[in-house]
């Protein structure tokens, strides 16, 4: 009789442990979903902030091209680090080279527009692609900023605020 009771108690304890494990597993899955959702929301917020920052950097004609590149790289690296992404020195050098080339292209195409050409193909999205090209697995932290920067540039030139941009192109 006592042996039967012990068996029954052991079975009940085993069932209870299984139920607890199931609840813990379900809770863990829900926590993971909540964490992923929160991370995605944070990334979306950071991307919106990046849009404003890059537009501001590109619109600031008081900055030399090199200062613009440095500011964009600082922002990109800070945000990537916040997201848990790290780069080698070689990757950083390559990204900097590509960002610099894209900033040159934006400046040149903007100058072309100023003198009658209507084509502007390089945007901040092109600059952001440097990150994903240079290091695999990196979050595209400039998602969606191409339109904002293009609009900023277009408004910038229409407002006549671009005087002196040529001198920025000559600085290295």
Describe the protein's architecture and organization.
The chain is mostly helical. It has one domain (2-170). It has 6 helices and no strands. The chain has helices spanning 2-59, 65-82, 89-114, 124-134, 145-158, 165-170. Helix 2 (65-82) crosses helix 3 (89-114) and helix 3 runs antiparallel to helix 4. Mean pLDDT is 68; it is low at 116-122, 135-146 and 161-172. InterPro entries: Microvir_H (IPR006777). One of its GO terms (biological process) is symbiont entry into host cell. This is Minor spike protein.
Number of E-state strands:
0
Order of helices and strands: HHHHHH
Shape category: rod-shaped
Number of helices: 6
Question: Which percent bin holds the helix content?
Answer: over 70%
Poorly predicted runs are 116-122, 135-146, 161-172
Strand content bin:
under 5%
InterPro entries: Microvir_H (IPR006777)
Organism: Roseibium alexandrii
Pfam family, one: Microvir_H
Protein name: Minor spike protein
Features:
172 residues, mainly alpha, rod-shaped, Microvir_H, Minor spike protein
């Amino acid at each position: 009789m006592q042996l039967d009771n012990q068996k029954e108690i052991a079975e009940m304890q085993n069932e209870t442990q299984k139920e607890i494990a199931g609840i813990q597993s379900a809770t863990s899955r829900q926590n993971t979903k909540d964490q992923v959702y929160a991370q995605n929301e944070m990334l979306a917020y950071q991307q919106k902030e990046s849009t404003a920052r890059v537009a501001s950097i590109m619109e600031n004609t008081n900055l030399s091209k090199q200062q613009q590149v440095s500011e964009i790289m600082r922002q990109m690296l800070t945000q990537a680090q916040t997201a848990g992404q790290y780069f080698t020195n070689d990757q950083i050098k390559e990204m900097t080279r590509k960002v610099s080339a894209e900033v040159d292209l934006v400046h040149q195409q903007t100058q072309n527009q100023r003198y009658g050409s209507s084509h502007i193909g390089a945007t901040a999205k092109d600059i952001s692609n440097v990150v994903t090209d240079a290091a695999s697995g990196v979050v595209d932290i400039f998602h969606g900023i191409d339109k904002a920067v293009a609009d900023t540039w277009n408004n910038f030139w229409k407002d006549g605020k671009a005087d002196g941009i040529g001198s920025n192109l000559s600085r290295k």
